[in-house]
Write a structure and sequence with these properties.
Belongs to the glycosyltransferase 87 family. It is found in: Cell membrane. The protein has 21 helices and no strands. It is mainly alpha-helical and 502 residues long.
Length: 502
């Protein structure tokens, strides 16, 4: 059989599950650890007769396993470092907000978030309403017997169990968003930064709601998408940004009804959660928003490098104004990109870019913020090389921030990473995120290089927009989209593996 014929035979048909080991050199090389690339006659379907270990179930099991490894990584802190000196939890890189805020935000004293004042600097809980509810439910499940250290340990374990459920939800949603590419979710499941940062804070709750929203949009359910985006925004602010890419893509396709339906669902869902608290405890409800505006420059941002290099504090209102201006500029750039690209960008691509822009220009880039991007990266750019480059940068930053905190907190004979070294760690993780943004922008401008579209798909996560013709573009006329249901035409190239191998 000739090479071309083998390419045609191995190329996926419209209903086939895409095999990453046939498209991605890194995936093919990594598969050698478990027996090598999948064979031509392997049974890869998801229906009856294909066994219990479907791709989605494999992804979920791997994600839970990696989450468990992340919990193990926190064991030095769980055993003693959270309670015996500030720097120990940094030198072991196992810090978590969860046990500290159990006492610091009044959950140990059965205070009601937003309604009861907290002693100390923070008068009220500084988290959005649904995240506060998540924290409160975990405190209900934490028994009050024993020492406070034991209660903090149990509270962390309870939260870890709830966040593990969120991890499973995220894995299922990412694996099912692109119907024919469930194995791309292994990027999420095996991401080292995901395992390391999952139990630092409560971000996974909002990430799970956002992943579910993306799945609903891919299934052409704009109302369910909007409701989930509204709930996710009630848990963390960033999910509301996703409505921007949806607006742009609906504008280009001339389909306004799905966007308006989604917007209505988002507003109603957000209001249903927030309005009762805002009316009953207005001071507590506004704390999250005032805290976000009033907090100074913090770890992980380029603003901190500027502040440290100039050796003077930056004016917070000025930083807020410049950050907002930079975000507006980024959004204008994304608008031009969405409306002028040769083909309408995929939703996951624009969503990743807008969320990444929000993080990059922000005055704080906490290590757990990478959780916002990992599921989106698996959908936007499912290439192992680029993903691992980015993850290496984030892992190095994860180590860098804790070593820096150990350095500044270790007294007259500091041990750890000095300020200059930490600044290089910040630059590294900003550069890693910018690199992934750059390759995604390249995919948008050169759609023939987009691995998701190599089989003729338009936008597997695009829902009602998948395969829709363009109605409004700027500049040159757009290429007509090819729907995933169209028959395969001609040999595939650039599969990243020897076509002579099965």
């Amino acid at each position: 059989m000739t090479s071309v014929h083998r390419d045609v035979e191995d190329a996926p048909g419209p209903q086939d599950v895409v095999r990453p080991t046939r498209q991605d050199e890194v995936a093919a090389a990594g598969s050698e650890l478990i027996g090598g690339p999948v064979g031509r006659f392997a049974r890869l379907g998801t229906g009856p007769g294909y066994g219990w270990l479907t791709p989605v179930r494999v992804v979920v099991l791997v994600a839970i396993g990696m989450f468990a490894l992340g919990m193990v990584q926190k064991m030095p802190c769980y055993d003693w470092a959270w309670f015996q000196g500030a720097t120990s939890q940094y030198t072991h890189a196992c810090y978590s907000d969860i046990p500290h805020l159990y006492v610091g935000r009044g959950f140990a004293d059965d205070l009601v978030p937003y309604f009861d004042r907290i002693n100390g600097d923070m008068q009220y809980l500084e988290y959005p309403v649904l995240t506060g509810l998540f924290m409160e439910v975990a405190s209900w499940l934490t028994p009050h017997g024993g020492s406070m250290q034991h209660r903090e340990q149990v509270y962390w374990m309870v939260n870890a169990g709830m966040l593990m459920i969120c991890t499973a939800v995220i894995a299922v949603c990412v694996a099912r968003t692109h119907r024919r590419r469930p194995w791309d979710a292994l990027l999420l499941a095996l991401a080292p930064a995901f395992a390391l940062t999952s139990t630092i804070n409560w971000d996974l709750f909002a990430v799970a709601l956002t992943a579910a929203a993306m799945l609903m949009w891919s299934r052409s359910r704009p109302l369910a998408f909007g409701i989930l985006i509204g709930l996710a925004t009630a848990a963390k602010l960033y999910p509301v940004l996703i409505l921007g890419p949806v607006l742009l893509l609906c504008w280009r396709a001339g389909k306004w009804r799905p966007f308006l339906t989604a917007l209505l669902g988002a507003v109603v869902a957000w209001a249903a959660v927030n309005v009762p608290v805002a009316v009953g405890a207005s001071d507590g409800w506004t704390k999250f928003y005032t805290f976000s505006q009033e907090r100074g420059v913090d770890f992980g941002s380029f603003w901190l490098i500027i502040q440290q290099r100039t050796n003077k504090g930056l004016d917070v209102p000025m930083v807020n104004a410049v950050s907002e201006l930079l975000m507006v500029v980024a959004c204008l750039g994304l608008t031009a990109l969405a409306l002028m690209a040769p083909r309408r960008p995929r939703l996951a691509q624009l969503v990743f870019l807008v969320v990444a822009a929000f993080i990059l220009v922000n005055k704080v880039y906490s290590p757990q913020y990478v959780l916002w991007l990992i599921p989106l990266a698996a959908l936007a750019r499912p290439r192992w090389r680029d993903f691992l480059i980015w993850q290496a940068c984030e892992t190095m930053y994860f180590l860098g921030i804790w070593l820096y905190l150990a350095y500044i907190g270790s007294g007259p004979k500091p041990k750890g990473l000095p300020q200059d070294g930490y600044q290089w760690a910040i630059i590294l993780h900003l550069a890693g995120t910018l690199y992934l943004c750059a390759v995604i922008v390249r995919d948008i401008l050169m759609p023939e290089r987009d691995v998701v579209r190599k089989d003729g798909s338009d936008d597997p996560s695009g829902g009602v927009l998948d395969g829709a013709p363009d109605k409004f573009v700027l500049g040159a006329a757009a290429h007509p989209p090819r729907h995933a249901a169209q028959p395969y035409e001609g040999p595939y190239v650039d599969w990243g593996s020897d076509p002579g191998k099965p």
